[in-house]
Amino acid sequence: MTSNPHGQPGGQPYPRPYLEPSANPTWIGRVLPGNYQPAPGNPTSLPQQSWAIPPVPVRRSMGTLPLVITGAVLAIASLLLVVPFLLGNTGITGFVIGFIASLIPLSVVLLTVRLIDRWEPEPKRLLWFAFTWGAAVSIAGTLLIQPLFALAAPTSSEEAFTYFMATVQAPIVEEFTKSLGLLVLVLAARKYFDGPVDGVVFAFTIAAGFAFTENILYFGREIASSTDPGTDLVRIFILRGVMSPFAHAIFTGTTGLVMGFAARKWHPGYAVLAFFIGLLPAMFLHNRWNSMGQDFLAAYFVVQVPIFLVAAVGIILLRVAEGKLTRQRLMEYARAGWFTPAEVEMLATSRGRRQALRWASSRARGQQMKAFIRGATTLAFTRQRILSGRDVQVHQHDELEALRAIPGLRAAVLH
After folding, report:
1. What is the spatial distance between Cα 170 and Cα 174, in angstroms, rounded to a whole number?
2. Which of 79, 203, 262, 326 is deepest in the core (most CB within 10 A)?
3. Is residue 397's pLDDT more than 80?
4. What is the model's pTM?
């Protein structure tokens, strides 16, 4: 069944502002009535004149290529500072062993990122940018800013100096340098920064890179300076690689969450404001973690484990909300003649996707089905950007391009 994108059945125009029932299925990406507009009709099932939005001439940009190139240059320049620092503290043997050991917690965090990001995957080039920012650029920034805080640190005792650097300098400087990568992404690649899930994905990836390099330092230093390197390496690995692989991810993830909510209604001022607001909980959590001392185990199980569980539940709720939003947007396209209701259930629910992929794989069409799902999801999120008032003409152009691709993607699965 199709609908007239210009008005109600029978040709009567919608009263303005109009908001389609169920247009706001979740608290993610809510749409104001003034921004709402019906989906373009399918010209194969509607009169040609009812295709509501004609192609809009849009000047195509270079996309994210300048950002990726800039990120690569910054990462290479940062490594010229970071690598000598690591080698100076770990030695070659410690560096190699630390590098290998650090791959284990890194893999755990990146696998989690992949699971979170499966519904609407971010471009790999942006994830690489995020990782290299965390692993190199934010580390270099931290090394450059640290001396300024050392000047302000108390010098009454080594213990007081160390405590200040751990509980004041580290939370402020590290969270600032990590989250600066998020600000760069939301300003330079806002097309791919849709909401809180994207903010968490990019933040976790940046934090994974930062923790990876930091772990090389901690693990390698145990090898270089300990009289019993094997035992001390196991101890520090259990602390950082087993008990707290997600510590940095959760700290920076709070900043990503706040910036993701701000990104739903695009404005550069909101992005900058969200950056500074989001730093506050990240710095606080980081401070609480570094402040744990003699009562470490008690604080870990009473405070840190519940924080981790709350973060896990929050991410699950974000994913559920993201799925509901996808389903609603595709239902709007279904009413305009682009999908059947059965296709929407297949494309916009986890169960439907699993069944569809099993069916397609049994007919050697698994990759084609993945492309169909990916195309439909991209279309749904493009529509959400339009309805939120973000770069409407650019995204209308992207919408029409995606709609033109849908019949071909469907045909590739069925034939």
Report:
1. 5
2. 203
3. yes
4. 0.89
